[in-house]
Amino acid sequence: MNKKMLYLICIFILLLPSILLADTSSIKEMSSIIYPKEPTRYKMYDLSAINNEKRWTVNNVHDPSIIKAGDWYYLFSTDVKVGGIPAPGIQIRKSKDLINWMWVGYVFKGVPEEAKKWTDAENLWAPDIIRVGDYYFLYYAASQFGKNQSFIGLAISKSPEGPWIDKGEVFKTRQGDIPNSIDPNVTFDAEGNLWMVYGSFFGGIYVSKLDKDTGKLAEYGKGTLIARRSMAVRDAIEGPFIIYNPLFKKYYLFISYDSLFRDYNIRVARADKITGPYTDYNGNVMTDTNINPNDVGTKILSGYRFNNDDGWIAPGHNSVLVDGDDYYIVHHARPALNKNWMYLHVRKVLWSDDGWPLVSPERYAGERIQEIPKDLVVGTWERIVLDPYVREQALSTEIKLLNDGKIESPNNKGYWEFKSPNTLKLTWVIDEKGKNYEIETVKVIPAWD
Q: Which tops the pLDDT comparison, 299 or 177?
């Protein structure tokens, strides 16, 4: 099923974010609404492309980092290959529209000598790119799965397509150390200072200040702890990414929880300072390991399936692209039918009125925020609840928004209100007397399924 859709990006039902999707293909077109055109359909599970890198468009993408340079968007990602041994060196792709991607090549020919000597790694992981002055700084990680004898290095270039000059170690850890020196992300704070957030299993997530001239640590050491999970879930946290939103004057920490093969999911928290403390929507601090580990961090994306589709599992290890006033979350995900494959996903991000990121339930096809007529909201929707305690693929349920303002649902009673230009409030009645209820506030935007 591929057609024009209207989707709702929801904020919260108490602890539970959710997403909705409506089929508008049978609704009379409204001239004021501009839907995206049908995007390129890349072939799934394409065995014929395994050994042809020029056909690696959105496939074989893992842990993507993105940057805009001129008219191009450049994507850097972990060395992976379905059905074979990946070439080491960090993969590079580019696009002009965030939809159609082409292969560029590699940053390195192999693992840099210093990183190889420290870790004996066969490939490179989780790169991150940022522009500092006239140069692009590319940070990369070398390690081995399940170990924390790890190494974060730096390469520089005047072009995202290279040539790249390796500048060696930024930070490294020994086996058994706390933390784990992988998954770097580098960002500027509101004052223009440069910082690196990094870490994973083996001690959590840390942030350290960098020297803008060298790209290396301003003061060598592990930095400040900003997020950690309980050992009851094996400290399963990784892939940090921080942005600053000047509208809300907040720093946002995006993070991936759980297993990258099965139940990866993306959480978010925010802080007034880049060094924290970071708290989620419910006020839980990201370093709190004494409460239920699934309570900490607001889930904004996880495995899901709409009707008549197999869906996706284990979305995670994201970066965030800020392109003018537009925000996009960029991550990999695995198709539910065969988790050995991994594909690039780009999704538009909207913001709630109280300053929380809302991730689209559909991959980006060129949609844009616009005023939605109230009449177009009436109809049948698919609703997915992103329960923080559920690790399986979330399934959709059908609800109907009726002309009289009521909600028809198999599980709940409720009513809805629409506020121009694109905000919808769903009120769910919990008991018969109507004194106990939950509210979802959502944003509406046209899209392509």
A: 299
pLDDT, tens digit (0-9, with 9 covering 90-100), for 54-94: 999 999 999 999 999 999 999 999 999 999 999 999 999 99
Question: Nearest 5°: CA angle at 254, between 14 and 144?
Answer: 130
Average pLDDT, rounded, for the chain: 93
Q: Where are the domains of the chain?
A: 4-37+370-448, 56-359
CATH code, 56-359: 2.115.10.20
Q: Is residue 375 among the annotated active site residues?
A: no
Q: How open is the CA angle 31-36-41, to the nearest 5 degrees? A: 145
Q: Which residues contact 357 (CB under 8 A, 6 or more apart)?
A: 252, 268, 300, 327, 329, 349, 350, 351
Instruction: With beta carbons less than 8 A apart as the criterion, state whether 171 and 148 touch.
Output: no
Q: How confident is the model at residue 434 (pLDDT cuts 50, 70, 90)?
A: low
Which tokens in the block code for residue 439?
A: 């509210």
235, 238, 263, 449: which one is catalytic?
238
Q: Is 63 a catalytic residue?
A: yes
Give the CA angle between residues 112, 113, 118 to the nearest 5°.
105
Nearest of 285, 274, 209, 281 to residue 245 by alpha carbon: 274
250-257 sheet: strands from edge to edge: 237-245, 250-257, 265-271, 298-301
- Model pTM score: 0.95
Angstrom distance (rounded) from CA 78 to CA 447: 29
Q: H-helix or E-strand containing 116?
A: helix 113-119
**CA separation for the pair 290, 87 (Å, rounded):** 42
